[in-house]
Amino acid sequence: SKPNEIQPPVIISTLSDKEFELVEHCAGCSTAFSFTNPRRRCRSCQHAFCQACSSRKAALPAKGHPSAVRVCDVCYVSVNHSVPGGAAMAAAGISAAATAAANATHASYFLDTEAAARRQKHNAAMEALKRIYKAKIRPLELAFKFSEFYASDLTDGDFASRPLVLLIGQYSVGKTTFIRYLLERDFPGLRIGPEPTTDRFMAVCHAPVERTVPGNAAAVDVRGPFTSLTKFGTAFLNRFEVSELPSPILDSVTLVDTPGILSGEKQRVERGYEFEDVVQWFAERSDRILLLFDAHKLDISDELKRTITCLKGHDEKIRVVLNKADTISHQQLMRVYGALMWNLGKVIKTPEVSRVYIGSFWDKPINEAGKDNAELFDAEKQDLLSDLRGLPRNSAVRKVNELLKRARLAKVHALLISHLAQNMPYMWGHKAKQNKLVGRLDEEYRKVQKLHALAPGDFPSPDKLKKGLEAFALSDFPTLSERLVKVMDNCLANDIPQLLMWLQEGEAADSRSRTRALEPDIDPTGNPFAATTDNASGPSWIVDATSKARWDNTFYTVCGNDAAAMSGAKARSVMMESGLPVEALSKVWSLADVDKDGALDPEEFALAMFLISMARKEGSGVLPDVLPDSYIPPSKRG
After folding, report:
1. Which among 110, 210, 109, 184 has a CA at the least distance from the CA of 581?
2. Three-state DSSP string of 208-257
3. What's the whole-model pTM score?
4. What is the H or E stretch that residue 40 is in?
5. Alpha helices, H only, 4-82
6. Mean pLDDT score of the chain, rounded to an integer?
7. For labelling alongside 47, which of 39, 199, 329, 403 has CA 20 to 30 A away?
């Protein structure tokens, strides 16, 4: 196989011929095999599928099949995923080589190969997870109307979405300013002021062109993760917006700003939609939830308390941010921190202490009152940014974890509904009996728990089940299918653990690769602690040989093979692709143009690209004011 090709995860163990003949259900859609619906083997993952789930063919030279052979839908996507749009091109009769050549023309100069490989692996895992959900979990959800009681159905956009960061807080605590601070620029639809300016939910997403998408349009875009928001109605969609713009950080995460929470009852009544339900929808899909507090406004209003309460079950995602902390002295900060923890302790009722980040998250200098805490604020800022930067690496595992929780809840829900329905009378008195059963749910919970050996923590809130049963009669639900339960148990016991194992093995391999990449080149026959040749005349250059070769290739592609320097006009077109603010790019140019001749030679260009890559990953604040010795190109050192 190609060195950078991500092989599809083997969700189910490879089957022998004898085991293959004993398989009863399709691994893709769970339909039973029969004379008219025979089993077919995928030549990539080696499992059994029906005709509908394995109708495509693809060449698998790495598995001994140079010509096209039958593969399942997920393996087909994975095989063609190494070339963007490969599946569509193949369907149109265009070769993979032609596709790669066409894409190379439009490739970004700032494509991070490590990030691209991680995203490709993430996409392969999400395709596998989507198949597991649709084939083995969703049938049970549909049979017992799971989405009417709890979370809405998962869509393709939910699996393909970037990690999501949800910001919650009272008005004027700095939520919108915090997003601007992360992006290091304004974004479409931005409004900041001391009054409650954000009156809508706003998702800030990555896109090549700046624009604002109204909520109704965003909710019908099947490529996005917002289609299931339609259940909250037009009143909410009129108060929802998607802001799209090119930005390095948005290439990794999506940020969601929420309306500032006021203390009055009027706001809740006149919204026209259930604010807590919408927050819960976003919380279920979030990778991180940031609760922001102003150092001068620590009170928790009734609506904020209800909002925090609806986040129960997502405690591991919550981080608390104490913003505007530079406006108070060191002694006052200690008292404010204590008061904040006291207030939170009455709402977030867990034995663990919430992680609180303290600082002033905007682009202004630190206030004079808080200068004694400048070192603390800087350390807290770096910790928070590191936490957010780590979200893309853990996104696949989080989605697997969320699906596991959902699958357990769906199974318990089906067992509960089935148990209650079995106690209903055959002829009459249905309503009275249902009211009696709903009134003693705690007792029925214990019976189901003991009968099926279930964990108490997997059971839903009795209030949610009661609310859901108000719209349905127990006699309307079907008899629980043993086949659906068996398929679900097999999914929880085998399929998802194998997917997790595949992800963990990949993370371990990536870690070993990064470690090897950081190791210096050492003469195998000499002293391993001897000074290297590069260090003999000073510190080694920060730009390694691999990166230098990559940027040299870009330099000569743009300027020609005989060029000695790149003009400012040509450099600008390349550098603007990074998505960094103009101010940051101006600083990069000043640092990289070491000899101040108004052009960049190959070494200076490689330095500029290194500085841009560093700013894209960690923010433009990491750019030095003066080049350290290790940053100066070797030919420019005096």
Report:
1. 184
2. CCCEEEEHHHHCCCCCCCCHHHHHHHHHHHCCEEEEEECCCHHHCCEEEE
3. 0.72
4. strand 40-41
5. 17-22, 73-80
6. 81
7. 403
* In 54-137, beta strands by DSSP E: 56-60, 65-71
**Residues contacting residue 346 through CB under 8 Å, at least 6 positions apart:** 300
25 has which bridge partners? 32
- Among 275, 277, 279, CA closest to 265: 275
142-199 pLDDT tens trace: 989 998 888 888 888 888 889 999 999 988 888 999 998 888 888 998 887 665 556 7
- Alpha helices in 5-46, H assignment, sequence order: 17-22
Q: Distance between CA atoms of 594 and 633, rounded to whole angstroms?
A: 8
**Nearest one of 554, 552, 558, 627 to 588, comparing CA atoms:** 627
CA distance 534 to 201: 54
Q: How far is CA 504 from CA 125, 131, 246, 409, 499, in A?
A: 11, 20, 31, 25, 9
Sort residue 110 into left (φ over 0), alpha (ψ -120 to 50) or beta: alpha
* CB-count burial class (<10 Å; 0-12, 13-18, 19+) for 383: middle
Taking the mean position of all CA atoms in its chain, how far away is CA 529?
Answer: 42
Separation CA 161–CA 577 (nearest Å): 23
Lookup result for tokens 């639900």: 477
Please name the amino acid found at residue 435. Answer: N
pLDDT tens readout for residues 490-538: 888 888 888 888 887 766 666 555 555 445 555 555 555 554 444 445 6
The helix-helix angle for 113-132 and 496-518 (nearest 10°) equals 170
CA angle at 518 for the pair 516 and 522, rounded to the nearest 5°: 75
Sign of the CA dihedral with 127 first, then 130, 134, and 140 last: positive
Residue 328 CB contacts under 8 Å (≥ 6 apart), including other chains: 295, 296, 336, 369, 370
Answer whether 243's CB lies under 8 Å from 187's CB.
yes
Question: In the block, which residue shows the tokens 């070339």?
Answer: 83
Longest dimension (CA), the chain: 98
Which residues, at least 6 apart from 193, have a Cβ–Cβ distance to it below 8 Å? Answer: 172
